[in-house]
Amino acid sequence: MKKFVVLTAVLLVTALGITACAVPSMGKLEIVGTSEPAEAAAGGTEGEAESADQSEAAAAPAEEPSAEATSTLDQQQMQELVEEGIVPKEAVKEEDGASVYDEQEINNALQKYADRISCKTTMISGNNMIVQVQNGNDVTIPVVTVHVNYPEGEKPYDFYQFSPGSQIIVPVEKGSGDLPPAVTASISVTMNANQYTDISKDLAVAENSTDTEYTLTITNSSTLVCQRISATALFSDDSGIICAQMTSSETTIGPGRTATLTFSLPESMTAEGKTFTTASYQINEAIG
Length: 288
What we know:
Blueprint: E1 6-13, E2 19-22, E3 25-26, E4 29-30, E5 39-45, E6 48-52, H1 75-83, E7 92-95, E8 98-101, H2 103-115, E9 117-124, E10 128-135, E11 141-150, E12 153-162, E13 167-172, E14 183-190, E15 203-209, E16 213-220, E17 228-237, E18 240-249, E19 258-264, H3 267-270, E20 278-287
Parallel strand pairs: 5-9
Antiparallel strand pairs: 1-2, 1-14, 3-4, 5-6, 7-8, 9-10, 10-13, 11-12, 11-14, 15-16, 16-19, 17-18, 17-20
Region (Disordered): 37-74
Keywords: Signal
Protein name: DUF4352 domain-containing protein
Protein backbone atom coordinates (compact mmCIF):
# COMPACT_ATOMS: atom_id res chain seq x y z
CA MET A 1 0.00 0.00 0.00
CA LYS A 2 1.43 3.36 -0.96
CA LYS A 3 1.67 5.84 1.88
CA PHE A 4 0.70 9.32 0.87
CA VAL A 5 -0.78 11.89 3.15
CA VAL A 6 -3.66 12.54 5.51
CA LEU A 7 -5.74 15.71 5.47
CA THR A 8 -7.94 16.47 8.46
CA ALA A 9 -10.75 19.03 8.54
CA VAL A 10 -12.44 19.80 11.84
CA LEU A 11 -16.14 20.63 12.07
CA LEU A 12 -17.23 22.24 15.35
CA VAL A 13 -20.86 21.94 16.43
CA THR A 14 -22.51 23.43 19.52
CA ALA A 15 -25.99 23.37 20.96
CA LEU A 16 -26.72 26.62 19.15
CA GLY A 17 -25.74 25.18 15.81
CA ILE A 18 -22.41 26.96 15.52
CA THR A 19 -20.17 25.20 13.04
CA ALA A 20 -16.75 25.59 11.54
CA CYS A 21 -14.56 23.47 9.29
CA ALA A 22 -10.96 24.06 10.20
CA VAL A 23 -7.46 22.70 10.53
CA PRO A 24 -6.87 20.11 7.82
CA SER A 25 -3.54 18.42 8.53
CA MET A 26 -0.92 16.27 6.80
CA GLY A 27 1.27 14.69 9.42
CA LYS A 28 2.45 17.90 11.05
CA LEU A 29 1.22 19.96 8.12
CA GLU A 30 -1.73 22.13 9.12
CA ILE A 31 -3.94 23.78 6.52
CA VAL A 32 -6.75 26.14 7.43
CA GLY A 33 -10.11 25.14 5.99
CA THR A 34 -13.41 26.98 5.59
CA SER A 35 -16.63 26.98 7.59
CA GLU A 36 -20.32 26.60 6.85
CA PRO A 37 -23.12 27.39 9.32
CA ALA A 38 -25.58 24.84 10.63
CA GLU A 39 -28.99 24.97 8.99
CA ALA A 40 -32.47 23.80 9.86
CA ALA A 41 -33.70 20.97 7.67
CA ALA A 42 -36.85 21.45 5.63
CA GLY A 43 -36.92 18.07 3.95
CA GLY A 44 -34.65 15.72 2.03
CA THR A 45 -34.13 14.17 -1.36
CA GLU A 46 -31.69 11.50 -2.45
CA GLY A 47 -28.17 12.76 -1.96
CA GLU A 48 -29.11 16.03 -0.22
CA ALA A 49 -31.00 17.62 2.67
CA GLU A 50 -32.48 21.01 1.81
CA SER A 51 -32.36 23.80 4.39
CA ALA A 52 -34.86 26.36 5.72
CA ASP A 53 -34.62 29.23 8.20
CA GLN A 54 -34.45 28.38 11.89
CA SER A 55 -34.85 31.49 14.01
CA GLU A 56 -33.11 30.13 17.10
CA ALA A 57 -30.11 28.71 15.25
CA ALA A 58 -27.12 31.03 15.42
CA ALA A 59 -24.08 30.70 13.19
CA ALA A 60 -20.60 32.04 13.77
CA PRO A 61 -17.13 31.09 12.58
CA ALA A 62 -14.79 29.33 14.96
CA GLU A 63 -11.62 31.11 15.98
CA GLU A 64 -9.29 30.84 13.02
CA PRO A 65 -6.35 28.49 13.71
CA SER A 66 -2.79 29.17 12.72
CA ALA A 67 -1.90 28.57 9.08
CA GLU A 68 1.73 27.86 9.88
CA ALA A 69 2.77 24.56 8.31
CA THR A 70 5.58 22.10 8.86
CA SER A 71 6.07 18.82 7.01
CA THR A 72 7.58 15.47 8.00
CA LEU A 73 7.21 13.76 4.60
CA ASP A 74 10.29 11.97 3.35
CA GLN A 75 11.51 12.17 -0.26
CA GLN A 76 9.89 8.87 -1.26
CA GLN A 77 6.49 10.02 -0.05
CA MET A 78 6.87 13.30 -1.89
CA GLN A 79 7.87 11.49 -5.08
CA GLU A 80 4.79 9.24 -4.80
CA LEU A 81 2.60 12.32 -4.47
CA VAL A 82 4.05 13.62 -7.73
CA GLU A 83 3.82 10.28 -9.56
CA GLU A 84 0.17 9.87 -8.58
CA GLY A 85 -0.66 13.36 -9.81
CA ILE A 86 -1.63 14.55 -6.35
CA VAL A 87 0.84 17.43 -6.65
CA PRO A 88 2.20 19.03 -9.85
CA LYS A 89 5.55 18.08 -11.36
CA GLU A 90 6.63 21.67 -10.77
CA ALA A 91 7.02 20.72 -7.11
CA VAL A 92 10.18 18.77 -8.04
CA LYS A 93 13.35 20.44 -9.26
CA GLU A 94 16.79 19.08 -10.05
CA GLU A 95 19.72 20.65 -8.25
CA ASP A 96 23.24 19.19 -8.57
CA GLY A 97 21.79 15.90 -9.83
CA ALA A 98 19.44 15.49 -6.87
CA SER A 99 15.68 15.95 -6.61
CA VAL A 100 14.63 18.90 -4.50
CA TYR A 101 11.00 19.15 -3.39
CA ASP A 102 9.24 22.45 -2.99
CA GLU A 103 7.17 21.91 0.14
CA GLN A 104 5.20 25.09 -0.45
CA GLU A 105 4.07 23.76 -3.85
CA ILE A 106 3.07 20.49 -2.18
CA ASN A 107 1.22 22.33 0.58
CA ASN A 108 -0.63 24.45 -1.98
CA ALA A 109 -1.69 21.36 -3.96
CA LEU A 110 -2.96 19.57 -0.85
CA GLN A 111 -4.80 22.69 0.26
CA LYS A 112 -6.88 22.47 -2.92
CA TYR A 113 -8.01 18.94 -2.03
CA ALA A 114 -9.00 20.09 1.46
CA ASP A 115 -10.85 23.12 0.11
CA ARG A 116 -12.90 20.96 -2.28
CA ILE A 117 -14.27 18.71 0.46
CA SER A 118 -17.22 20.51 1.99
CA CYS A 119 -18.77 19.70 5.34
CA LYS A 120 -21.77 21.15 7.11
CA THR A 121 -24.35 20.29 9.73
CA THR A 122 -28.12 20.52 9.49
CA MET A 123 -30.40 20.68 12.52
CA ILE A 124 -33.34 18.29 12.36
CA SER A 125 -36.28 17.43 14.60
CA GLY A 126 -35.65 16.45 18.22
CA ASN A 127 -32.57 18.67 18.51
CA ASN A 128 -30.65 16.16 16.43
CA MET A 129 -28.26 16.87 13.57
CA ILE A 130 -26.81 15.39 10.42
CA VAL A 131 -23.22 15.87 9.28
CA GLN A 132 -22.91 16.16 5.50
CA VAL A 133 -19.61 15.68 3.68
CA GLN A 134 -19.27 16.13 -0.09
CA ASN A 135 -16.32 15.45 -2.38
CA GLY A 136 -15.88 18.38 -4.74
CA ASN A 137 -12.61 17.01 -6.11
CA ASP A 138 -12.32 15.46 -9.55
CA VAL A 139 -10.53 12.43 -8.08
CA THR A 140 -11.65 9.63 -5.78
CA ILE A 141 -10.53 9.95 -2.16
CA PRO A 142 -9.49 6.43 -1.00
CA VAL A 143 -10.67 6.74 2.62
CA VAL A 144 -12.72 9.32 4.51
CA THR A 145 -13.13 8.94 8.27
CA VAL A 146 -15.83 10.93 10.03
CA HIS A 147 -15.09 11.22 13.75
CA VAL A 148 -18.16 12.22 15.78
CA ASN A 149 -16.97 13.30 19.22
CA TYR A 150 -19.53 13.14 22.02
CA PRO A 151 -18.76 14.15 25.63
CA GLU A 152 -18.66 10.43 26.48
CA GLY A 153 -16.24 9.56 23.68
CA GLU A 154 -15.60 9.38 19.95
CA LYS A 155 -17.39 7.34 17.29
CA PRO A 156 -15.36 7.02 14.06
CA TYR A 157 -16.90 5.99 10.73
CA ASP A 158 -14.72 4.91 7.78
CA PHE A 159 -15.92 5.26 4.19
CA TYR A 160 -13.90 3.87 1.29
CA GLN A 161 -13.60 5.15 -2.29
CA PHE A 162 -15.25 8.56 -1.88
CA SER A 163 -15.80 9.33 -5.56
CA PRO A 164 -16.10 12.80 -7.15
CA GLY A 165 -19.43 14.47 -6.39
CA SER A 166 -20.41 11.84 -3.84
CA GLN A 167 -21.94 12.70 -0.49
CA ILE A 168 -21.88 11.12 2.96
CA ILE A 169 -24.56 11.80 5.58
CA VAL A 170 -23.86 10.82 9.19
CA PRO A 171 -26.67 11.28 11.76
CA VAL A 172 -25.83 12.79 15.15
CA GLU A 173 -28.60 11.53 17.41
CA LYS A 174 -29.14 13.08 20.83
CA GLY A 175 -32.67 11.88 21.52
CA SER A 176 -36.05 13.58 21.35
CA GLY A 177 -36.33 16.58 23.67
CA ASP A 178 -32.70 16.49 24.84
CA LEU A 179 -30.61 19.58 24.29
CA PRO A 180 -27.49 18.53 22.40
CA PRO A 181 -24.25 19.29 24.23
CA ALA A 182 -21.23 20.52 22.33
CA VAL A 183 -20.29 17.99 19.64
CA THR A 184 -17.14 17.98 17.53
CA ALA A 185 -17.01 16.13 14.21
CA SER A 186 -13.57 15.77 12.65
CA ILE A 187 -13.13 14.49 9.12
CA SER A 188 -9.87 12.85 8.12
CA VAL A 189 -9.14 12.20 4.45
CA THR A 190 -6.32 9.86 3.45
CA MET A 191 -4.77 9.42 0.02
CA ASN A 192 -3.50 5.90 0.78
CA ALA A 193 -4.20 3.52 -2.08
CA ASN A 194 -6.45 0.53 -1.32
CA GLN A 195 -7.82 -2.50 -3.12
CA TYR A 196 -11.46 -1.40 -3.31
CA THR A 197 -13.56 -0.04 -6.19
CA ASP A 198 -16.59 2.23 -5.93
CA ILE A 199 -19.60 0.36 -7.36
CA SER A 200 -22.36 2.64 -6.06
CA LYS A 201 -23.43 3.54 -9.60
CA ASP A 202 -23.90 -0.16 -10.37
CA LEU A 203 -26.57 -0.68 -7.73
CA ALA A 204 -30.30 -0.83 -8.42
CA VAL A 205 -32.30 0.34 -5.41
CA ALA A 206 -36.01 -0.32 -4.83
CA GLU A 207 -37.76 1.59 -2.03
CA ASN A 208 -40.68 0.44 0.09
CA SER A 209 -42.24 1.98 3.19
CA THR A 210 -44.97 1.71 5.81
CA ASP A 211 -46.00 4.34 8.36
CA THR A 212 -42.98 3.61 10.54
CA GLU A 213 -40.54 1.61 8.40
CA TYR A 214 -38.47 2.25 5.28
CA THR A 215 -36.79 -0.52 3.30
CA LEU A 216 -34.18 -0.49 0.55
CA THR A 217 -33.83 -3.59 -1.60
CA ILE A 218 -30.45 -3.36 -3.28
CA THR A 219 -29.45 -5.36 -6.35
CA ASN A 220 -25.80 -5.57 -7.29
CA SER A 221 -25.54 -5.04 -11.06
CA SER A 222 -21.74 -4.88 -10.95
CA THR A 223 -19.45 -7.69 -12.05
CA LEU A 224 -17.70 -7.28 -8.68
CA VAL A 225 -18.85 -8.68 -5.36
CA CYS A 226 -20.09 -5.86 -3.12
CA GLN A 227 -17.90 -6.10 -0.03
CA ARG A 228 -19.60 -3.45 2.04
CA ILE A 229 -22.45 -0.95 1.75
CA SER A 230 -23.53 1.96 3.95
CA ALA A 231 -26.67 4.06 3.59
CA THR A 232 -28.47 6.82 5.47
CA ALA A 233 -32.26 7.20 5.47
CA LEU A 234 -33.96 10.57 5.98
CA PHE A 235 -37.55 10.45 7.30
CA SER A 236 -39.61 13.60 6.68
CA ASP A 237 -43.05 15.03 7.30
CA ASP A 238 -44.54 18.40 6.40
CA SER A 239 -42.22 20.14 8.87
CA GLY A 240 -39.03 18.71 7.36
CA ILE A 241 -36.64 15.94 8.36
CA ILE A 242 -37.82 14.32 11.59
CA CYS A 243 -35.34 11.47 11.82
CA ALA A 244 -32.12 10.26 10.18
CA GLN A 245 -30.64 6.79 10.48
CA MET A 246 -27.50 5.20 9.09
CA THR A 247 -26.87 1.50 8.69
CA SER A 248 -24.25 -0.63 7.01
CA SER A 249 -23.80 -4.26 6.12
CA GLU A 250 -20.55 -6.09 5.57
CA THR A 251 -22.39 -9.13 4.23
CA THR A 252 -21.19 -9.54 0.68
CA ILE A 253 -23.60 -9.18 -2.24
CA GLY A 254 -22.63 -11.19 -5.30
CA PRO A 255 -23.22 -10.00 -8.87
CA GLY A 256 -26.94 -10.13 -9.61
CA ARG A 257 -27.81 -10.81 -5.97
CA THR A 258 -29.88 -8.63 -3.62
CA ALA A 259 -29.72 -7.43 -0.02
CA THR A 260 -32.14 -5.48 2.16
CA LEU A 261 -31.47 -2.53 4.44
CA THR A 262 -34.28 -1.67 6.86
CA PHE A 263 -34.77 1.61 8.74
CA SER A 264 -37.41 2.19 11.45
CA LEU A 265 -38.63 5.21 13.36
CA PRO A 266 -37.48 5.05 17.02
CA GLU A 267 -39.97 3.67 19.54
CA SER A 268 -39.97 7.04 21.30
CA MET A 269 -41.43 8.60 18.15
CA THR A 270 -43.92 5.86 17.29
CA ALA A 271 -45.17 5.92 20.90
CA GLU A 272 -46.13 9.55 20.30
CA GLY A 273 -47.99 8.57 17.13
CA LYS A 274 -45.30 10.06 14.93
CA THR A 275 -45.26 8.99 11.28
CA PHE A 276 -43.41 10.14 8.19
CA THR A 277 -44.86 11.19 4.85
CA THR A 278 -41.74 10.78 2.71
CA ALA A 279 -38.37 9.09 3.00
CA SER A 280 -35.18 9.34 0.99
CA TYR A 281 -31.77 7.73 1.08
CA GLN A 282 -28.10 8.43 0.55
CA ILE A 283 -25.67 5.65 -0.38
CA ASN A 284 -22.59 6.63 1.61
CA GLU A 285 -20.42 3.79 0.42
CA ALA A 286 -20.61 0.73 -1.82
CA ILE A 287 -17.32 -1.02 -2.55
CA GLY A 288 -16.31 -4.07 -4.53
